[in-house]
Amino acid sequence: MISFKNVGKSYPDGTQAVRDFSLDMPSGQTTVLVGSSGCGKTTLLRMVNKMITPTSGSVWIDDDDVATLASVPLRRRIGYVMQNSGLLPHRRVIDNIATVPLLNGVPKAQAHSRARDLMDLVGLDPNMAARYPSQLSGGQQQRVGVARGLAADPNILLMDEPFGAVDPLVRADLQAELVRIQRELHKTIVFVTHDISEALALGDQIVILKKGAEIGQAASPQQVVAEPADQFVADFIGVGRRSLNLHLQPSASGYLVVDDSGRPTGRLAPGSLSAAGLPQLAAPDPSGRP
Amino acid sequence: MNLFAQAIAWLTDPANQGGPDGIWTRSLEHVWYTVIAVVLACLVAIPLGYLVGHTGRGRGLVVVSSGAARALPSLGVVTVAGLILGIGLTAPMIALILLAIPSILAGAYAGLEAIDRQTIDAARAVGMSEWQILTRVEMPLGLPLLLGGVRSAVLQVVATATLAAYVGSGGLGRPMFLGLKTQDYAQMLAASLVVVVLALVLEGAFELIERLAQRRFAPVPSTST
Fold first, then answer.
1. Are A195 and A217 in contact (CB under 8 A)?
2. Among all residues of chain A, which has the CA nearest to that of B132?
3. Interval B121-149 mean pLDDT
4. What is the dihedral of CA A183, A187, A188, A194, to 10 degrees?
């Protein structure tokens, strides 16, 4: 478990990136920190592996205050995935993935075989092993980044807007892959994003942050949507998803789900009403009249 | 063009080629001076440039002092150092090293500075020590710019090493100054031609080295995204 205890971060010029942040992030679960730019979410994430040191309070991993741990070994046992991959441009994909095991002194052959397994896990073609990062698409680079983060089999995975710079289709793919991988591996994931849909898609715990990393609400995705803690949270979710108030609208091929202004957001899966124990509605009238 | 023909004739005359005073020996001396000066300059400038490039501190100081060093007239340095240290190789060496340092220093720190900050940040975040960041990320990625700096230092030094003869040492300056004193302009021109050829050969060699380094450390031109 990762615990933040009254953590604060202020800079010499007086700005307070984080005021007073306390939270537990349970092991084996995905905690998503979500908020607008400048809310301090990345600052919080980088405190876990000591890339940033808090100016007050403490961050704990299980029974260790990270302030008492040496940075380099700490970082090697925590996976880190960032936006724009951060891969080493002069090393091949396979060497990039094997970076941390090689630093830890794992023999090259063994590190490479582990890297190949990870390429398979994150859905990368094995032919890409010998390529250089600049020869890959943005989505492929992010997959390499995820594989590198997992290479030393860390318990904790820090992900800083890892899918922020790829196009929406690829992003949805990568999110689905992450959900699948997490179902298999049960890492403690801290995931930072400004995209509430991404947060709801990935998080076991959603933490909505206001300015200064003040917690707007920290709860399950269901709870955040069903019972937003305050107007800020309601607005934040609403802005991200256009509106939370969804309606059913009959169409030729079943029910469409539309938002307050009548824009479609999806369609009702066949049989979902009866599955939820609700009475079946009359067959939709193709003319559009309810 | 008569002088030019005479210079070629001087060069092809076997009497001027062999022996301790021949053009081959003088050329070797010249290259030797160049190599020593550049190697010594590298020993000073590369660690300093890496220190500045890695920490990002002292950049202003380095820019100002290498600007000042560039402004030093080499002939003046040779004269002053020669007056203090006497005849020999030390005085011209000091001048040549001072001449070589600024380019190499600039190449070393600019090479490190040009690296994407995100790459370095990521290297640190996955658990590389500062030394590992320097040796495994910054040095290979900064190599092309460093080689560029060494290359221009070599070219400046090879051209200026003729000054060694000014205070009694060898090199291609020897036949040049001799020609000046005896009004043998063909000999002067012949020696300068050899300096030019040397410079071109070294330039070619560096072109080759830079390409090899490029292939080894930056195999694919990074596509702008």
1. no
2. A103
3. 95
4. -60
Beta-bridged to residue A189, according to DSSP, are A30, A157
* Half-sphere exposure for A201 (CA within 13 Å, toward CB): 20
Query: pLDDT value at position A143?
Result: 94
ipTM: 0.83
Check CB contact under 8 Å for A84 and B118.
yes
Q: How many CB atoms lie within 10 A of CB B105?
A: 29
B115 neighbors B138 (Cβ within 8 angstroms): yes
* Chain B residue whose CA is closest to A98: B126
Residue-level length of chain A: 290
Complete edge-to-edge strand list for the sheet that includes strand A78-82: A78-82, A156-160, A188-193, A30-34, A205-209, A215-219
Q: Beta strands A205-209 and A78-82: pairing type?
A: unpaired
Q: What whole-number distance in Å separates Cα of residue A29 and Cα of residue B208? A: 54
Q: How far apart are CA A90 and CA A73, in angstroms?
A: 24
pLDDT digits over A80-104, tens only?
A: 999 888 899 999 999 999 999 999 9
Closest CA to A125 of A145, A108, A143, A110: A143
Residue B7 identity: A
pLDDT higher than 50, residue B224: no
Per-residue tokens: A139: 């989505």
Cβ–Cβ of A99/B119 closer than 8 Å? no
The reply to whether residue B222 touches residue A134, judged by beta carbons under 8 angstroms, is yes
Residues of A within 8 A of B124 (CB-CB) are: 51, 75
Q: In what order do the strands lie in the sheet with A2-10?
A: A16-25, A2-10, A56-61, A64-65
DSSP string covering B144-166: HHHHHHHHHHHHHHHHHGGGGGG
Mean pLDDT of chain A: 89
- The one-letter amino acid at B215: R
CATH superfamily of A2-240: P-loop containing nucleotide triphosphate hydrolases (3.40.50.300)
Domain boundaries, chain A: 2-240, 245-290
Q: Kindly report the pTM of this predicted structure.
A: 0.83
Q: In the structure, how many helices (H) and strands (E) does chain A have?
A: 11, 13
* pLDDT (tens digit per residue) in B8-19: 888 888 888 888
Domain architecture of chain B: domains with CATH: 2-217 (1.10.3720.10)
Residue entry with tokens 């390409």: B211
